[in-house]
Fold this sequence. Notes:
Elements: H1 14-19, H2 23-40, E1 79-90, E2 94-100, E3 106-112, H3 116-124, E4 130-139, E5 145-156, H4 175-180, H5 182-188, H6 190-212, E6 216-217, E7 223-224, E8 236-239, E9 244-248, H7 253-262, E10 266-274, E11 286-295, H8 299-318, E12 322-325, E13 328-331, E14 337-340, H9 341-348, H10 359-370, E15 378-384, E16 400-408, E17 411-418, H11 423-438, H12 449-457, E18 462-468, H13 469-477
Helix pairs in contact: 5-6, 6-8, 6-13, 7-12, 9-10, 11-12
The chain binds one RNA strand through α2, β1, β2, β3 and α4.
Amino acid sequence: xxxxxxxxxxxFSWEKMDNxxxxxxxxxRQRTHKVAELRERGMNPYANDFxxxxxxxxxxxxxxxxxxxxxxxxxxxxxxxxxxxxxxxEKGKVAFLFLRGDGGEMIQLFVKIDYPDAFAVMKELQLGxxxxxxxxxxxxxxxxAAMRTEQLRLLTKAIRPLAGKLLGGQEIKDIEARYRHRYLxxxxxxxxxxxxxxxxxxxxxxxxxxDERRYVEVETRMLLSTNGGATARPFRTHxxxxxxxxxxxxxxxxxxxxxxxxxxxxxxxxxxxxxxxxMDRFHNPEFTSIEFYQAYATYEDLMALTEELLERLAxxxxxxxxxxxxxxxxxxRRPFRRISMLEAVLERQPDxxxxxxxxxxxxxxxxxxxxxxxxxxxxVTHFPIEVSPLSRRNDRDPKMxxxxxxxxxxxELANAFSELNDPLDQRGRxxxxxxxxxxGDAEAMDYDEDFCQALEYGMPPTAGEGIGIxxxxxxxxxxxxxxDVIPFPQLRPEGG
RNA sequence: GAGCUCGUAGCUCAGCUGGUAGAGCAGCGGCCUUUUAAGCCGUUGGUCGUGGGUUCAAAUCCCACCGGGCUCACCA
Length: 496
């Protein structure tokens, strides 16, 4: 079962290249020879002295506003742009090229023999090359914007031919290839890039949201000798100098609460979490969470804050609170529904047996019958104490705790509670975890003595919350799999 | 971990009631001064995932293995 990390180093060999007979190798060899040939003729195939003056998005490309080519004014503005060559239609003494640049913006180049230098360069280009062009814009006879290319430069030679759809070709359908060679996926499917842009927007907007509220962003340790803060199996690693085994964190919770004890009343961390568990559409072994903690607040305050946050993110990223996820209409407009776990289960099973009305039985019934049905955003509150080793006991019902989870499209999106700050209670909960661990529960938390001591010094009443950012981005960008919002999702190691 | 399913040219696929491989796109050579999935002529390229087996003969049937996908289980 154990598989070592792949450390093979491919050896480049001209002889091997020249002896290869496959079509792909033949194309690579042909393009490699092209590079040498261009160098011999004094053309640098990897030139970096071309100055771009405009992003393609900044170039006027509305044909209504552009003159026909023969009427380009002598002093018309010139634009220097660059991008990847995606299509080339040669028509004898004239050629049309399509470039795609940053942001997926396209521009059409018109290269004609009247500009012999540019024309000669065009003859050397191949699909996939990165090129720079300078010229004036006009409208073609069929009413499309194009740049009369007066200067054309090869900026980077593509040695390996691009696979799949560029413009009008076939899509790459091999899902493995798309994730393993994400750059190909992005070249072939510009909408993939848009998802990553939206992911970035989600996170930056989130930062802004918390910064505005005087939260302090921190980065806590990822390598830990005690593991806690969530129920999950950890990854193990080893520190050579200390000669000690360490865990990769499964949550940021305990360190953030230590910081609250230390006096940062509002703190958050956005960062990677690692859980050594199964993978599917909603789970990647490493994923990104935000956890935030606010002193002198309760989980109820966080419900209001969460509503505000999600509504704002939806507008910032999707442009509206009324989004669609995999064909289901979802409204992220405030307020969200709130219901206790027991009420939620009773709604569907009024005759619920007594043993299922509390403790693990209740959670089981909830997960089996209710969770998948919670399509619209719903806060579920009042969790049994057994599944919440770090949350504050409810003052009226000591079997329950002051906690909520937010569910959307049948999946947990956020988890929050009023934090347990009674050190004696916390020690008892850790002990219960230790018992589970001894009984073989690999997901049980370690007894964290230092954390208990921190609480003994006194943590103000605090509420904290964690949100899975990957799932949130899936929701906001309507992506069916977590792999679609992570640039390099976990796959099996390549090869045997 | 279990079930289902798939693995043929760089990409997308056809061929699979067994007779040693095809198309479109891409590539290469040629023609074309306003095209836009341009067109036309010519052309390269595959030990059909790997290894066994059945057979005169296997991409095609059988078995095993490797890899992918989906579903379930596990998992917040």
